[in-house]
Amino acid sequence: MPEFIIKRVLQTLIVVFLALTGVFFLVRLSGDPTILFLPPDAPKDQIAEYRHTLGFDRPLYVQYADYIIHVVQGDFGDSLVTKESALGRILSSFPATLQLALSAFVVSLVIAIPIGVLSAYKRNTWFDKFGVGLTVLGQAIPSFWLGLLFIYFFAVKLHWFPTGGRSASLSMILPTATLAIYSLARLVRFTRSKMLDVLKKDYIRTMKAVGVSTLEILTKYALKNALLPIITLIALDLGALLEGAVITEIVFSWPGIGMQVMNALMSRDFPVVMAGIFVISLIYSVINFAADLLYSVVDPQIRLK
Amino acid sequence: MTNVVRKTDTEEKSMPVLRRKSHFVSFFSDLIRSKTGLAGFFIICLLFVIGIIGFLIVPFNPMDTETAQKLLPPHTEGHLMGTDQLGRDVFSRVILGTRVSLTIGIVTVVLAGVIGTVIGVLAGFFRGWLDMVLMRIVDVQLSFPFILLVLVVNAVLGSGLKNIIISLIIAGWVVFARVVRSEVLAIREKEFIIACVATGVSGWEIMVKHILPNLFTPIIVLASLQVANFIIAEASVSFLGFGVQPPQPAWGNMLNEGKDYIFNAWWMITFPGLAIVITALGINLFGDWLRDELDHDL
Amino acid sequence: MKNILDVSNLEVKFQTRRGGVQPLRGVSFRVHEGETLGIVGESGCGKSVTLLSVMGLLPNDMAEISKGKVLFEDQEITHLKEHERRKLRGSKMSMIFQEPMTSLNPVFTIGDQLSQPLRKHTKLGKKEMKKRIIDMLKLVGISRTEEIIHQYPHQLSGGMRQRVMICLAIICEPQLLIADEPTTALDVTIQAQILDLLKKIKQKNNMSIIFITHDLGVVAELCDRVIVMYTGQIVEEADVRTFFNSPKHPYSKGLLASMPKEDERKQKLYAIKGNVPGLNELPLGCSFSNRCPMAFDRCKMSPPVVKVDGQICRCWLYAEQKVGEQHGE
User: In the predicted model, what is the mean pLDDT of residues A112-125?
Assistant: First the structure.
């Protein structure tokens, strides 16, 4: 077990390190980074001076080594716009993202699993068909458009909620709903199909044959069996949720990491972009790691290696 | 008389061909039996027609700005879906946006699919250090959100149709590589491959003759479902102000322009969004059916 | 002798995506108290469907009992509500399945799964339950019982799992045990042990057993009476001795002839020609007529059910003798 954890931590570090390396070279090789870092109408001497202060006139490998040395010390450089620490800016917006993602996650989980289970149980009835229809539709609706529609109906027309931001107490509702619906469709669909798989298994028939009721089989036995693949999807889905969060944050001006990175991209504030990528890929890896740990708790057949 | 004789002649010769055709026929008769698959198929056909001849049927030039006519609601002065902030006809722009979306969806899926397949096959077949290196790259790419990767790459490369396609390919090939690799690993363990190895068939021949044909189904299914993902991804990126730039009409950038007028022009955010939903719905319905159908055959 | 089970004229229909089929076409048989009945036939002949209908375990979204009655202890059970059926299952009638490897839930301990029928059908307390489980595990020949109840199925061998399955089925001491090819997936030596075990339990508890198999050797060893099924119908019914000495139906003869015998080791085994026809492509009249070496022109019509020397046989060959009722028995 400790061996497994050490191995995974190392793996995570390698992946994050490679991700940073990739983006570093992507940014540097795509042209003179100074120009990316400055407004397009900057005068020539200012560009040259800036290039020197940022160290872009040095050979690439020196720049890379320098960057990595700083990153290892937790220094991602300063924001080119606000001059604050880039990592600090990203981390300060982390709670907002966490709040949005977690609340949406909980909402979608609480709705999706019962619907998925019921849909599988009532297979081919109107309830099931309705549920499946909604999930198919839900997967075809881009979250940013759903967000726009919500803003139009509930904020612009009905004035129930603010159009965006995080200051008002009700401002959470619309982004949470948008993001929850985004992952709801996939979770329902996946829960249903996994439950159907499990309900076909011989061991379910065994339990029926000794007189256990369908409801009990469904909630106690089948759900525990289906939980394993569902956990995998949820882990993957938390990643997707993060992706949806980026878009949702931008639509609702929710001041999370997604919006920070987006703003940084717009203003070509690459130190902040790099710090954002670092934090996001770290979160991703941690989620996957947690899913693996959870796995071993649910399935006695899995020994962590 | 001679005519008749000839006819039966060709009929007999074409027997094997006919048999192969019946596979094709059964494919379509199955499609007709599935309501949802058929609906998806019709939507896709319709989109193709609109994409190809759309420029012939638009009532207005989608680029024509007419500030006097700006922000007209639907059904006024011949504007079926109203006009935008520059007085351009929304209907015509939605129609022309079809071509952009379809082009992006198909081109990116084909290229990302080919690249991903080649890499997946190499990694799965040769294993060893090559597999390790390639799969680390895949891990890295999968360690952050697809959309964010597209955004970052696009921001670095610059906007525009060509660059959004390149960005989508760079971000999208990994899914194919991963699926293909695991399929190859699974096929390698099958008895018939082991039998080939045991009878001394060369590695190259095994790969081309025995492994590649078995990858066809999973790749087709994955690709059909990825088209919708890529179209939505492009729309998202264009919506965020990168990707396809106005005045070129794309559903994503129309929504981007529309969101600034959300207080007084609901039609600007409604119709392009509906177009995306219908497109994604059609492709997904067909893709889901295709997966079930091909699975059924296996 | 008292009947524990009386199935009469049972018909089952399946609805599939590509139309309906009828896997059971009027099946009637009885099981006496304390008797072992063997049901034989090739795959797809309706053996399992028959017994799943008796248990009430047919997949209810696609299968339907369209006709016939099942009397269990003189009570008609096909019309019972699901919760009433549940009371019978696991307590008065229970079933062992073919696949011991997949029939136990991989994420629950053996003890947990064995306690399930007790929780459903008895009012035993925790300690009594555990005692009962351990006693029953010992009965099915498992030592290290204290250890086993905390283990998961994947930690046990196939033979051990089948013992656990048997234990699960008999833990409430049912009157009727249905065994659906319980030894097919096991090694030969384990097979013999499991058969011995079933014999022992039957004697001890005086239950009736229905034993589904396609292995006639097992029938000879274990059963009192035999039913031969083909394409959803019973084609022959006889007591074991009569069946092996003078089978009547050509299909039964074929089955017996295709069984290897010790003194014929070097000879080529007989095989019934052709394959079992699909349920939607049955030949007209006798459904075995297309494979039957004795077929003649009357076989184009539905064969009668005939009683010959205490055997029941569905065949035109014996039609000159006493004709039984046309339908059912």
Answer: 85
CA distances from A281 to A14, A183, B148, C111 (A): 11, 20, 11, 43
Q: Is the peptide bond before A43 cis (omega within 30 degrees of 0)?
A: no
CATH match for B28-55+79-297 among 2.170.150.40, 1.10.3720.10, 3.40.50.150, 1.10.357.10: 1.10.3720.10
Q: Which residues 6+ apart lie within 8 Å of C245 measured at CB?
A: none
Structural domain count of chain A: 2
Chains that touch C (3 or more CB pairs under 8 A): A
Residue A256 CA, chain-centre distance (Å), reads: 12
A271 contact residues in B (CB cutoff 8 A): none
Distance CA B250, CA B272 (A): 8
pLDDT in single tens digits along all 329 residues of chain C: 688 899 999 999 888 766 778 888 888 999 998 899 999 988 778 888 898 899 888 877 778 888 889 999 888 988 888 888 888 888 899 998 888 888 888 888 999 899 988 988 888 888 999 999 998 898 888 888 889 999 998 889 888 888 899 899 888 889 999 998 888 777 888 888 888 888 888 888 888 999 998 888 888 888 999 999 988 889 999 999 998 888 888 888 888 888 776 665 556 667 777 778 877 778 888 888 888 888 888 888 888 888 877 788 888 888 765 444 444 43
- Does residue A5 sit within a domain? no
Q: What is the pLDDT of residues A250-284, one digit of tens each?
A: 888 889 998 898 888 888 788 888 898 888 888 88
Tokens 């099946």 belong to residue: C27
Say if CB B82 and CB B73 are below 8 A apart: yes
Are B145 and A156 within 8 A, CB to CB? no
**CATH number of the domain where residue A112 is located:** 1.10.3720.10
> Which residue segment(s) compose the domain that A196 sits in?
99-255
Q: How far apart are CA A92 and CA A84, in angstroms?
A: 11
Please count the other Cβ atoms lying within 10 Å of the Cβ belonging to residue B106.
16
The distance from CA A303 to its chain's CA centroid, rounded to whole angstroms, is 27
List strand residue ranges (DSSP E) for C19-141, in order.
Answer: 19-32, 36-40, 63-72, 75-76, 93-96
pLDDT at A14 over 70: yes
Average pLDDT over residues A178-193: 87
Q: What is the largest CA-CA distance in chain A?
A: 85
- C52 to chain A, closest Cα gap in Å: 9
Mutation target among A210, A220, A223 for the C interface, most CBs of C within 10 A: A210
The pLDDT value recorded for residue B234 is 92
Q: Report the alpha-carbon distance of residue C270 to residue B3 in Å, rounded.
A: 53
Average pLDDT of every residue of chain C: 85
Report yes or no: B239 and B230 within 8 Å, Cβ to Cβ: no
Q: Reduced to 3 states, what is the DSSP secondary structure of residue B78? A: coil
Confidence check on the interface: ipTM exceeds 0.85, yes or no: no
Q: Are residues A43 and A154 in the same domain?
A: no
Whole-prediction pTM: 0.76
- Reported as a single tens digit per residue, the pLDDT across C227-283 is 999 888 899 999 999 988 888 888 888 888 887 766 655 566 677 777 788 777 788
Q: Chains A, B: CB contacts under 8 A, how many?
A: 114
Instruction: Give the type of residue at A29.
Output: L
Closest CA to B243 of B234, B251, B232: B234
Per-residue model confidence as pLDDT tens digits over A85-112: 889 889 999 999 989 988 998 998 899 8
Can you give the residue ranges of every domain in chain B?
A: 28-55+79-297
- Would you call C108 and A298 a contact, using CB atoms and an 8 Å cutoff? no
Amino acid at B184: V
